[in-house]
From TrEMBL:
Stored SMART domains: S_TKc (SM00220)
Pfam family, one: Pkinase
Lineage: Eukaryota, Metazoa, Ecdysozoa, Arthropoda, Hexapoda
Family annotation (Gene3D superfamilies): Phosphorylase Kinase, domain 1
Protein kinase domain residues: 53-172
Gene: Dsim\GD26008
Descriptive protein name: GD26008
Ranges in a coiled coil: none
One BP annotation, GO: regulation of mitotic cell cycle
PANTHER family recorded: CELL DIVISION PROTEIN KINASE, CYCLIN-DEPENDENT KINASE 10
Assigned GO CC terms: nucleus
Keyword Nucleotide-binding: yes
Organism of derivation: Drosophila simulans
Region spans: Disordered: 1-22
């Protein structure tokens, strides 16, 4: 039977379960339960900071977040920058946002917008999706139509939607 020596026992007090979770720039040590600072150079992990994008204008807002037209300051390309809505989230990224990221990262199809990368805001509590920017989507075309689509235009749009749907059902 082995005996415990005083230096074998963890003398650090257990963390207070009622204390707020520290997220900004800290990780919790699995050994001691205390916060460990993250070095500045590793703060964003492999994600780029959103500060590397210049927001040009707001183009829309949906149930999952606000979309901006932005310029990537590294490449000078125009992109769509979608801020993932995290209003009600106390436990990090909402499952709907995580699902969207996972699906879009797997998609490579001409009729499905491409997710280029995920970037983070200053506080690590804000996450942005960097996507290809398109001047208009189908919803904005429909909202701004002066006359109905022709039969051939309806066929063309329907074919594009069905091709994307077929791809999603086969690929995922």
């Amino acid at each position: 039977m082995s005996s415990l020596k005083s230096n074998d026992v963890d003398t650090n007090p257990a963390p207070d379960p009622q204390a707020p979770i520290t997220r900004k720039g800290f990780l919790m040590s699995l050994n001691t339960g205390t916060p460990m600072p993250i070095p500045e150079q590793n703060l964003f992990g492999r994600c780029r900071p959103v500060s590397e994008f210049e927001k040009l204008n707001r183009v829309g807002e949906g149930s999952y977040g606000i979309v901006y037209r932005a310029r990537d300051t590294r490449s000078n390309e125009i992109v769509a920058l979608k801020k993932v809505r995290m209003d009600q989230e106390k436990d990090g990224l909402p499952i709907s946002g995580l699902r969207e990221i996972m699906i879009l990262k797997q998609c490579h199809h001409e009729n499905i917008v491409r997710l280029r990368e995920v970037v983070v805001g200053k506080s690590l509590d804000s996450i942005f999706l960097v996507m290809d920017f398109w001047e208009q989507d189908l919803a904005s075309v429909l909202d701004n139509m002066s006359q109905p689509f022709t039969e051939s235009e309806v066929k063309c749009i329907t074919l594009q939607v069905l091709k994307a749907l077929k791809y999603l059902h086969r690929a995922l």
